[in-house]
Amino acid sequence: MARRPDPEPDCRASDSSYDVVIIGGAAIGSAVAYYLTANDGFKGRVLIVERDPTYRHASTALSASGIRTQFSNAINVKISQYGSQVIRDFPDLMQVGSDRPDLNFHPGGYLFLARTAEQEQILRDNHKVQKACGADVELMSPADLAHAFPHLNVEDIALASYGRSGEGWFNNTGLMNGFRNKARAQGADCVTDEVVAIQRQGRRVTGVTLASGQRIAAGYVVNASGPRAALTARMAGLDIPVEARKRCITVFTCAASPEGSARINQGRLPLMIDPGGVYCRPEGSCFLAGCPPAHDPPVAPDDFEPRYDEFDEIIWPALSARSPAFEAIRPVNYWAGHYAYNTLDHNLIVGAHSDLPNFILANGFSGHGLQQAPATGRAVAELITHGAYQTLDFTEVGVERIIANRPFVEKAVI
């Protein structure tokens, strides 16, 4: 479930000029601040501007908190492989004084189920990409699936794909808090305020104006404002195809829980994605579930009303057909969050805009921002510090494809 974030202190920027101003202080923005201040080649000053010190409506806080390597594009596989490494090493990397934040990672894995010949071929194609990257993913026949997870009805299943390691779920706001607290310990400043204007001269941004009236000069501005990313980009005179799209989560209890019944992975059940898109995973003594909406319009940035009918009309019918254990379940909590949805290709947009080279985008993650935050933060820090990527090349997910209207499609989107 969503964890309560650490509150942001009420403060003002300590100076009127920063080398880097980051708009948005959730997982992506905090990761950028951490990697900048941890980079030996970066000698500048960093400011995070965050409009909501509670983060209660941040996509980070309202996410299902998962990480997986089962993607169709190699860049996304590698991004999550690095994210898994950071989650594993988080207590050491983010230690501040005696505080060693542990993200309580649950290595349950992800389980994709395919029913049709088209879905089966996608799993097989994706598996080739994943294995080429060294991901620990296996394909399961219906017989293998029935043996591993005996509670499942597999009569209509053609193939399954299962992540044996490096996949699971973790403390969502713990990741954000760890990055932000370490960044501050390393010298980054944070301010509770809202950017209401971005100044530019020709092909460069020069600073931002805050709702408080304060003006901050900036060498670089990083757009890490999640579902509000298009609004932020427009302040700089740019258009990006990112919209707020509502995604709802239901937590339910189960009269006869199947957790512990798996014959692999110490009995742990994975996050299962049914062929129709309904997903479900254990959440403590309960289960957490969601689904792709039947109607998916853009929503207002402050619209967080759950679509309660999704459970009765979509989620419960799919789950009860998949397992007898899910015939008697009862919702105990609902919430809605926002995807920062890239309408072009559902993939992240990271990098400098050719029309404004010191305005850096870190947007459009389409539900994958939490797991992609570590690699994105590192990439943006490298781009600012060195002018080029040093570790993982993000060129494929850069802004050029957006300008050219050339989709870079990710097939494994939940």
TrEMBL record:
Superkingdom in the source lineage: Bacteria
Protein name (database record): FAD-binding oxidoreductase
SUPFAM superfamilies recorded: FAD/NAD(P)-binding domain
Transmembrane annotation, as ranges: 20-37
Entry-linked InterPro entries: FAD-dep_OxRdtase, FAD/NAD-bd_sf
Stretches assigned to the FAD dependent oxidoreductase domain: 19-383
Alphabetically ordered keywords of this record: Membrane, Oxidoreductase, Transmembrane, Transmembrane helix
